[in-house]
Design a protein that fits this description.
The chain contains six helices and no strands. The longest helix is centred in the middle third of the chain and has 29 residues.
Length: 149
């Protein structure tokens, strides 16, 4: 998995937010909704990680009443309202993730510049490190050359 940059993470979450408006609340748990929910869960797992608070918060969202009593008559309007409320809550939650990324993540340019290490900045180490006959300086330079390519 390639780590997401700030711009890509925000763009991907915005894309998932835009899908919410196209989900028809009267078609409860349609294939479109299920696809959107699964894709959003996967995206949040990739962006933040599979144990993240953000993913757990998204999974906790309710799109239907939690408890139904046997004596309760199924009311389509109530189900549609719960579904709409769940979608609105999802939108607000995803927007809060965008604000969090925007505030706390490094800008893409700064993040990219950190990976451009100048070989001249590598500390010169003794060629025979700890008596093992390893030329650590050469190993470090070789590692960073591969990293820059």
């Amino acid at each position: 998995m390639i780590p997401y940059t700030k711009t890509i993470a925000i763009t991907e979450i915005q894309s998932q937010i835009s899908v919410i408006d196209s989900i028809n609340p009267s078609e409860l748990f349609s294939e479109q909704f299920e696809d959107w929910r699964k894709k959003t869960e996967g995206l949040l797992s990739d962006i933040f990680n599979s144990d993240s608070r953000q993913l757990k918060d998204f999974i906790k969202l309710k799109f239907r009443p939690s408890i139904r009593f046997l004596s309760t008559v199924v009311n389509d309007q109530t189900d549609v309202k719960y579904f709409k409320d769940g979608l609105n809550t999802a939108k607000i939650l995803l927007e809060s993730f965008i604000k969090e990324i925007d505030k706390y993540w490094q800008d893409d340019i700064k993040a990219n510049n950190k990976s451009n290490i100048n070989l001249n900045d590598v500390i010169e180490l003794k060629p025979n490190f700890m008596g093992f006959g390893l030329n650590i300086n050469a190993i470090i330079k070789k590692f960073f050359k591969r990293k820059q390519n």
